[in-house]
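Problem statement: downstream parser choked on a complex file, so we are re-checking the raw output for the LXAUTJHC run. The parser issue turned out to be on our end (a line-ending mismatch), but while we're here, posting the original submission so the record is complete.
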Amino acid sequence: MDELVLLTGARGRVGRAVLEGIGDAYEWRLFDRDPPAEESDHEFVVADVTDDEAVRDAMADVDTVLHLAGDPRPEAPWKSILTNNIDGTQTVYEAAVDTGVERVVFASSNHAVGHYETERKPDIYRRDDDYLLDGSELPRPSNLYGVSKAAGETLGRYYHDEHDLSVACVRIGNLTKGHPPIDYERGQAMWLSYRDCAHLFERCIEADYGYEIVYGISDNDRKYYSLERAKEVLGYAPRDNSAEYTMGGEPKENV
Ligand SMILES: NC(=O)C1=CN([C@@H]2O[C@H](COP(=O)(O)OP(=O)(O)OC[C@H]3O[C@@H](n4cnc5c(N)ncnc54)[C@H](O)[C@@H]3O)[C@@H](O)[C@H]2O)C=CC1
Ligand SMILES: O=C1O[C@H](COP(=O)(O)O)[C@@H](O)[C@H](O)[C@H]1O
């Protein structure tokens, strides 16, 4: 419990999934540009990740940063992406090095590699297709938002090689609460359940690594992202699988 974790973007969907799953496991410092929606037992810093003084101050005594803050919209305009996702992420890495943070876990995205699907869809989203990405592939962003995620991964590579910062980039698939995305094959292939999300980020806090890129998805039969690296290096053990649900989101055991 003595690990102090800074959670940027704490008010968001992924932040809520993390706190729902492992909120009792660590001491947290929450960070978001929007104030907390409800009372919280955790310290909350209301600031922008592009404000380097605020970010440095928020990193005092922090061991691990889970950096989630950013514009999550695949269609986000370049100005927002440049500011929130690229400038903000560089500010976080730089402050982490300056303040002695041990590791940064970066919320990357499936959109960093989205164009690997272009010549293979829709078969790639189906269980009998054996094509797999394993995290070692070069980025092929599907949009400018995906470019910002590839930039965040490359920034992490630099801060690891130059400053020995431990960095894990999690290419999150599609976080959906309670069931996989409904009637959406791509979403079913890359579903990440809330409990697997919390578990994966916990493993990123606990495991030892230098620089890693892993896929943040549940163990979906339809997956085209390999989970071997996450299992081997992080000890990731997902419990959910979109194949256990109908396309309408009903558990098959109930049908
Ligand atoms: N939800 C998903 O399925 C996926 C999410 N991701 C990534 O995970 C991260 C979190 O995503 P979500 O929780 O879904 O997004 P969200 O929009 O629900 O939460 C993001 C949070 O970050 C905050 N934020 C944005 N820009 C900020 C800034 N400049 N300074 C301080 N706070 C700022 C927002 O106020 C918001 O509370 C994002 O980086 C997103 O790109 C990646 C793939 C899939
Ligand atoms: O990075 C992200 O990806 C997911 C899945 O992408 P989609 O284009 O299939 O919806 C998206 O839901 C999420 O908002 C975004 O941050």
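For whoever reads this later: The first helix runs from residue 13 to 22.
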